[in-house]
Amino acid sequence: MNTSDLLTYCMSKPGAEQSFKECWQATQIKSEGVLFAMLYEVKGRPALSLKATPALAELLREEHNDVFPSEHLNKSHWSTLWLDGSLKDSQIYYLVDASWQQADATREAGVNHDDH
């Protein structure tokens, strides 16, 4: 997947804001202050971290070699996937949508923690 197209898609979500986390060399995308996507490189490969329910995160990791626990975020909720891996673009877009919905639920619950 092209990182530029992915970033454009993420930024099309309601309330999306982009920032750069210097210590991780990562582009973070938040919706009204709640993180839902993070683009960066892992071992020189383009990667995307997304939030999911613990059950979905575990299922994705079991079914796809290109999905693994996030290096920087809560591993039970956050998974990282290779953008140049075997996942189809449509699957990645679906996971971005699911992550944005998780961020929306977090906002509605009144929790504003990046790592949850």
Automatic annotation (TrEMBL):
<dbReference type="Pfam" id="PF04237">
    <property type="entry name" value="YjbR"/>
</dbReference>
<dbReference type="InterPro" id="IPR038056">
    <property type="entry name" value="YjbR-like_sf"/>
</dbReference>
<protein>
    <submittedName>
        <fullName>Predicted DNA-binding protein, MmcQ/YjbR family</fullName>
    </submittedName>
</protein>
<keyword id="KW-0238">DNA-binding</keyword>
<dbReference type="GO" id="GO:0003677">
    <property type="term" value="F:DNA binding"/>
</dbReference>
<dbReference type="InterPro" id="IPR007351">
    <property type="entry name" value="YjbR"/>
</dbReference>
<dbReference type="InterPro" id="IPR058532">
    <property type="entry name" value="YjbR/MT2646/Rv2570-like"/>
</dbReference>
